[in-house]
């Protein structure tokens, strides 16, 4: 039975730690944390150098920096998409859409009569001579 469970991947989870640090040495955990901090600091320095280079280019060619960039938000660091809207913002948008009337008219009879009105106006304006 052990042969079957090991071949299928079930059974004991002792060998598969799953990347957790439950059984790791505290020194190893501390070393990983320090390495991660060093890496982040290195990337911050590189980005600061790049920004200095960008600013020099902007100054050289008189290019103005764009004022609002949603990706400059420090909370958005590492995210690929845009900022998610809060439930309050979503509710406000829904209320604004309802006030505008939406895409469809309130009555279906209004929708049915519109094409007839448009055809009448077009025929009046486009007379053949």
Give a written overview of the molecule.
The protein is an all-alpha fold and 129 residues long. The protein has helices at 2-8, 26-61, 87-100, 108-125. The longest helix is centred in the middle third of the chain and has 36 residues, at 26-61. It is flat, with a radius of gyration of 32 Å.
What topology emerges from the helices and strands here?
Blueprint: H1 2-8, H2 26-61, H3 87-100, H4 108-125
N-to-C terminal Cα separation, in Å? Answer: 94 Å
Tally of strands: 0
Q: How does the major sheet shape up?
A: none
Radius of gyration: 32 Å
Count of individual helical segments: 4
Taken from the alpha-carbon principal axes, the silhouette is: flat
Strand content: under 5%
Helix content: 55-70%
- The arrangement of helices and strands along the chain is HHHH
| Mean model confidence by pLDDT | 76
Name the poorly predicted regions. Answer: 13-18
Counting helices, strands and paired strands, the structural category is: mainly alpha
Top keywords for this entry?
flat; 4 helices; about 130 residues
Short structural description:
With 129 residues, the chain is an all-alpha fold.
């Amino acid at each position: 039975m052990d042969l079957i469970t090991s071949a299928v991947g079930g059974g004991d989870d002792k060998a598969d730690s799953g990347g957790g640090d439950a059984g790791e040495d505290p020194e190893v955990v501390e070393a990983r944390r320090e390495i991660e901090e060093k890496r982040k600091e290195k990337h911050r320095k590189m980005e600061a150098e790049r920004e200095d280079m960008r600013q020099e280019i902007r100054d050289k060619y008189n290019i103005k920096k764009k004022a609002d960039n949603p990706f400059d938000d420090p909370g958005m660091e590492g995210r690929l998409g845009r900022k998610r809207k809060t439930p309050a913002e979503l509710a406000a948008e829904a209320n604004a859409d309802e006030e505008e009337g939406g895409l469809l008219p309130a009555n279906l009879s209004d929708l049915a009569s519109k094409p007839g009105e448009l055809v009448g106006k077009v025929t009046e304006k486009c007379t053949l001579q």
